[in-house]
Amino acid sequence: MTLRAPGMHYGLHFRFGAGTRDDSTMAPLGSLVSTHDTVPLQILLPKAPMNRRNFINLSALAGSALPFDPFALPSRQERKTPVVYPDPAVEIVDPRFAKYKVGNAAVERLYTGARWAEGPVWFGDGRYLLFSDIPNNRILRWLEDTGEVSVFRSPSNYSNGNYRDRQGRLLTCEHDSRRVTRTEHDGSITVLIDRFQGKQLNAPNDLVVHSDGAIWFTDPGYGIMSDYEGHKASFELPANVYRLDPNTRQATVVANDMDKPNGLCFSPDEKKLYVVDTGAPKHPGDPHPIRVYDVDDGVHLKNGGLFANMSPGSSDGIRCDVDGNVWSAAGWAGEGFNGVHIFAPEGTLIGKIHIPETCANLCFGGAKRNRLFMAASQSLYSVYVDTLGAQTP
Questions:
Q1: Same domain for 309 and 161
Q2: If residue 52 lies in a helix (H) or strand (E), which one and from where to where?
Q3: What is the pTM of this model?
Q4: Taking 50 as the threshold, does the pLDDT of residue 266 lie above it?
Q5: Do 330 and 85 touch, CB atoms closer than 8 A?
Q6: 157 and 185 in a common domain
Q7: Is there a domain that residue 288 lies in?
Q8: What are the residues whose beta carbons fall under 8 Å from the beta carbon of 265, sequence distance 6 or more?
Q9: Is 329 exposed, middle or buried (CB count within 10 Å of its CB: 0-12, 13-18, 19+)?
Q10: Residue 199 CB burial class (10 angstroms; 0-12, 13-18, ≥19)
Q11: Which of 90, 111, 168, 365 has a C-alpha 20 to 30 A away from that of 130?
């Protein structure tokens, strides 16, 4: 606030910008450029000398005006150019995808301010979403009712993937501590696994829970390859996919035929497991694969093969809907590729959701599980779709 000469109008100017602070935004995809809008609030004062009483009155008047300014509300919608429905960011590649597109729903940016957003998980009982901001060493929480974003856990041990077990507890893959943890209902943290056969895990990345309570997780080791998402350290184990038995707490290797196993999910009937391999192709023309395996008796994998090729970019996190379609994060190939690619159960690309940032991971949520949340580079996005996520809870 600037004090001016007596007898003149005193103007208060408040500056806001989606890219400058950790508050909620709900910007349509069509206009995601971060701007700084100066909103003037004119306060007319009597022509009197500026003394202590007038200064206090001025301050009080300014404070009383703030609650009526829509820009001061954390859940405000930014004054952006509206998207014309149907949103062209939701692309129908195959006619089978048409029934999943909601004609009067747009892709929204809910938040920006992360360095590398990952691991979204929905808590319907609290109406909030948790997601990791790995380089900033924190887990963030987005509230559905207000749109506010706050810090849920810091430090988070450079957490990456998050999921919920069948009892509703938070499960987390931690890069820095090289372990998988469970947050109990009272807030305490239980270490589920940090070693295998006497050796430290690499850096658990993503996880999913089977209906029998077993935790399946990937361990590619990205968290020990640099100090940006963890800390540099030596690999003690190959990059494996593990199954952690809920009763014995014993882990077994269920897949060891990938370079960097990453995101994973079960089909709705749990007869198939999809796993993303984000390792560099060994030969020119080799795919950037999403692999699929048959699940044998809920314990072992067999008949592994290529489900989809994400070249020229790559996948990361994946989820299934109730119809068995695979919704895959997509990135590292620029405009027209980044976002989410949707594959039919036999592996045909049927749809795309375009966003201007590389998407790392995703999940379904909302009151009806028909809202797709996308953790993408520096931001969190969402869009309503006409299908439901297959995850439980």
A1: yes
A2: helix 52-65
A3: 0.82
A4: yes
A5: no
A6: yes
A7: yes
A8: 208, 273, 274, 318, 319, 320, 326, 391
A9: buried
A10: exposed
A11: 90
